[in-house]
From TrEMBL:
It comes from the Eukaryota. It comes from Cephus cinctus. This is Glutamate receptor ionotropic, delta-1 isoform X1. Keywords: Cell membrane, Glycoprotein, Ion channel, Ion transport, Ligand-gated ion channel, Membrane, Receptor, Transmembrane, Transmembrane helix, Transport. It is found in: Cell membrane. The lineage of its organism: Eukaryota, Metazoa, Ecdysozoa, Arthropoda, Hexapoda. One of its GO terms (biological process) is detection of stimulus involved in sensory perception.
Amino acid sequence: MTSVIANILVILTLHSFSSRNFIDAEAPARIENYFRITKNVLEYYSSSCIIILHNGFEEKSSVSLAHSLSRLFSESMFLTSTMSLLEENNNKIQKQWKACNTRPVQLVLLGSSESVTNFARHVRISNIDYPVWLILATEEARILVNGLRKNPDSNILGLTEVTEMLHLSFSERMVYEWHLQGNKTRADELASWKSDENLVFQVKQDIRLRRNSLYGKTLKVGGHQSQYGTMQLGTIDDFSAEIMYELSKAVKFNIQYVMENAEAYGSWDYRTKRWSGVMHMLTTKQIDVAGIVLRMTTERARDVDFAIPILSSVDRLYIKRPEEPLRWTESFQALSPGIWATIGMLVLTTPILLTIISLVKKEEVAGHLIIQDYLQVLGIYCQQGLTHFPKDFSSKLAYFSIFVSSLITYSAYSGTLVSNLAVSNDELPFSSLEEFAAQSTYRFIFQYEGAIRDMFVSSTDPVLRKLYLMSDKRENLPRNLEEAFTQVCNGNAGFYVESISLIKMKLSCKIASLNTGRPSSIGIALPKHSPYKELINRNLQKFRENGIIHRLITKYFVNDDSNESVRTETGFWSIALALVLFGSGMILSCVILLTEVIIFHWRTCGCCSRLSTEKSDDNHFTRSSFNQSRKSTSGLRITRREFFT
């Protein structure tokens, strides 16, 4: 502040001022002229609120002019207030900003060199970039103010690249717009006027287009051992660095990385009452912008400013995916019980109808026919064809209806079953944070010194408090995502983090997540009242509209619903029932086949034995008869021989 006053005194020595009274030169016509021009500025900025600042009651002329203008603006339905440039009024002025529905215009009346010094001191301690400043200087202060405008190397008023400070030069009938360009103060002609006429604005281009460059200015960008990998100087190797690189190209600034030794984003130390990590660098203004995206929380927003959110998501609890249980009924869950009952009724009743049709035609015996019809209907529902198609029209119509119903049923069943098997449906041992806090199987971890830790420390939620008490010791908490997911895969650990932090990294295990329902957002953080916030917001909005942010999100991050690390594939146990049925059918078929072969072989051997026995009996009977015939014949021969003898 001493240097500010010294610069003003140097300029004062270069000019001689007349001690002309401020209000003496102000005729009613001149006051009306001030009012008309100031009203034009209010309309140009679409503002309905004006704050008139003067040097205090020591300058009675300035106070008199301030009240005269205040009365005119109040009559014109503008929200008007009048205050002095005293330091103790700074908080009152900022409260008045909050009372305005639109961006306020602050009309500064400078009537002496002392008022210029007080004004310089005032803008240094206030948020210079929020209101629109309109400087109105009299003859004594006019020379000094013109000297500030024509001296681009001195930035006594602390202007920034986005400051909107206007200077009414009545000697030139011109309105100049002051702002910082690079390292020099620049004054551009914004509007002019003629006597008793309104302002004619010479610049048609929007201020967002006129001031979209930092002209090669170097910004200090803070970083640390990044969550997404090691951030190295001059390289683009993570999401945050690429965002910063795209901003540097769009806004035209150079990046000077300032690395923090601590591997932490920053958390609040309740003992020392200060931030750590990158948050400490922001609050102490060691850097101009954080080079890593930070979680946006209420505690952090009190001490730093955030640009518009880059990503929004929810917090999740990640664990190692449990072994998939055997679900025997999953194949039957593809259709509702009502549909299964309908299919069963069709299978039971349709063969009876076909049998009745065949009996009416007097084709075959009923017992053999109904078994054949049941096998054919079951075959149709199993997507098999018929060995022969019936000739009569009634049977053709019945079989056509069966084929159509089986086709529709099979299509619906196949689609639903494939969807159920393919869609990820992780079965966790708990369904909420309350259930997780009640179990004792899993450890609880979160990232070392971050916004999530602050949330658990300061929370009054009994569930969050219980989770914090069951968490690992501070020195055992993971420092980055790689360490965290290593602990998840190596043991029973539950890792609490925002789901947008799940980047495309190789994991040593398959993980599952529980949606906690707590929203979270990340964005770029800047020091409080940073002059670069508006520039960054405008360009981030352009990146969002042009698809640059979407491209980077697709490149680095994994979608919650379709990420490769969480996606499940159809495993053996998912189709175990079908495989068991298939295997059981094959085994049963083999058993039946073997039984049929044995029975056939036994029957064949039995028939052969019986035939051989019958043949041997026949041979024995033939031989006995032959022997008896021979004996009778020989007897006859002996008798005959004896007779002739």
